[in-house]
Amino acid sequence: MKKISNARFEIRRRGYDVSEVENYIVETQSKNETVLIEQKERIAALKEENDKLTAEVTALRAQENQIKLTLLKATHTAEQLDSDLKNRYAAELKRLQLFRAKWTSAYEEIRERYNFSKDALNMESVAVQTEIELKKFLKQNFSLANGREADEMEEYFKKEVDRLTKLQQAAQNSSERQGENIASDNVFSIDEALHPKESLEDLCKDLGIAKKACRG
């Protein structure tokens, strides 16, 4: 923008040329208005851009908070899954320990009567091996950082159950083959031993075994 002090006018007898001064003023005002309009437009554009960037920042912050919440939830879920899996396997281990404690003493008392010493040893071996496998599995790290998902844990557990079921079936088949040479009233059923219809105390009472041994 040109300053008025830089303008030069024709000098007349009574002063500057009035028409030139008026034309200069009009021209200067027009230029000032043009510059002002351009500045307003520039300010409006900058404000619009600022509003857009502010909205983007707000959206990014919202996404950041959502990601943080998701990560926290994933971490909590992973920890809960880890705890649940360990609790499940610990419960299974405890169940097997109770099973062995309650039945081992009974096996010792009745295996001679029913002549199934080999099958008793097979069942004891299955219980011990299962306990060892579960203890080893419980020592593993189930966290997501280890790269093992819950489905993989479930699959591993199912495979272990299938494997132990096959061992139990093999022991039962062995018992059935041996039972062919024993009187029918003396046949021992591993399935009945695993899932007795009578309580352990009643069974021991029928067999004449001391209560102390049955309590394990």
Task: Give an overview in words.
This protein is mainly α. The protein is 77% helix and 2% strand. It has a domain at 83-215. The chain has six helices and two strands; from the N terminus they run E-E-H-H-H-H-H-H. The chain has a two-stranded antiparallel ribbon with strand order 1-2. Helix 1 (18-114) packs antiparallel against helix 2 and helix 2 runs antiparallel to helix 3 (150-179). The termini are far apart.
Provide a short characterization of the protein structure.
The protein has about 220 residues and is mainly alpha-helical.
List the helices and strands and how they pair.
Blueprint: E1 11-12, E2 15-16, H1 18-114, H2 117-138, H3 150-179, H4 190-194, H5 200-207, H6 211-215
Helix pairs in contact: 1-2, 2-3
**SSE succession:** EEHHHHHH
Radius of gyration based on Cα positions: 46 Å
* Whole-number mean pLDDT: 71
Outline: rod-shaped
Strand line-up across the major sheet: 1-2
How is the main sheet built? 2 strands, antiparallel
* Secondary structure: helix percent: over 70%
Which range does the strand content fall in? under 5%
The low-confidence parts are 143-147, 181-188, 210-216
Total helical segments: 6
| Strand-pairing-aware structural class | mainly alpha
Distance, first to last CA: 106 Å
**Total beta-strand segments:** 2
